[in-house]
Amino acid sequence: MPTHLSFDRHVDALARAGAVLREAASAAGPDAPVPTCPGWTVTDLVAHQGMVHRWAAAHLRGDADHDATASEREGRRATDPLGWFSQGLTALIDTLAATPEDIKARVFLNDAPPPRRFWARRQAHETTIHSVDAISARLGRWPSAAEADLDSALAADGIDELLTGFITRAKSRLRSAEPYSVVVRADDTGHAWTLRVSDGPVVTIVGETASPEAVFSGSAGQLYLSLWNRADELTAKGRSDIADDWRSRVRVEWG
C-alpha cells in the first residue's frame, strides 16, 4: 500500500487538521453535540483525538506501558482541554520528526508502509476526519466537502488508505453471500479503485475494472467524507442496495 503523499505532506496535513479541529471545537464550545458522531460532545471528541495522538506517539517511542484509557480520561478532566490537545499534537509531530526511518514499530493495516510513514499517514487522516467532526459541531449539521475545504490530493490518499488498508482486513463487516464489485472513482484526481466484495475479506484492486455492479463517483473530497460516513455526497450508480450496505456496514471504530 504505497502512500500517495510524502512523509512531509502527511505531517503538514496532520498539523493543519489539528489547527482546524482546535479552532472549530473552540467556536462550537465544549458541550456542543457532534452531529457526525452521535452521542459525542466536543469534549468527547477533543479527548478522544488527543488520546489517539498520545497513543500513536507511544507506539513510535516503543512505550508499551502507555495507558490509552487513562490518557483519554485526563483529556476529559483537563482544565484546558484544547491546550491539552495541542500539547499532544505537538508532541506527536516532534516524535515523528525524531523517529528514524527504519524504526521497528507496530502497524495495523494490510500492506502498510514502513512504521514512520504509516503513523504519519494514519494520524494525518485520523485528525482530518475528526477535524470534520469538529466542523460539524460548529455548524450543527454534517458539513459539505466544500465547507470542510479538503485538499484533493490528501483526500485521494485517504480514500486509498481506507479501501486498501482498512476494509480489506478480516475484521471488516463488508461481506456479501452474493459476490459483487464496486468501482470507486475520484473524478477530479483521476484515481480509481475496484472492490470485490464476497463472503470473505474484501479484495481491493487499484484501478478500474469493467462491468461492476455499482460505481461510486464524485470529487476526491466528496468520496473521502462519504466513504468515511461524514457526508452523503457521492454519486452511486448501479445497484442501490450496495451504497446502503456500505453505509450500514463500514464503520472504523476505536478498538
N-to-C span: 22 Å
Low-confidence stretches: none
- The percentage of residues in β strands lies in 5-15%
Q: C-alpha Rg, in Å?
A: 18 Å
CATH fold assignment of the largest domain:
Four Helix Bundle (Hemerythrin (Met), subunit A)
Provide the spatial order of strands within the biggest beta sheet.
3-2-1-4-5
Helix count equals 9
* Helical content band: 40-55%
SSE string: HHHHHHHEEEEHEH
Q: Could you say which structural class the secondary elements and strand pairing correspond to?
A: alpha+beta
Oligomeric state, counting identical vs distinct chains: single chain
Query: What form results from the Cα inertia axes?
Result: globular
- Architecture of the largest domain in CATH? Up-down Bundle
GO molecular function: metal ion binding
Domain MDMPI C-terminal: 154-235
Protein name: TIGR03083 family protein
Domain Mycothiol-dependent maleylpyruvate isomerase metal-binding: 12-134
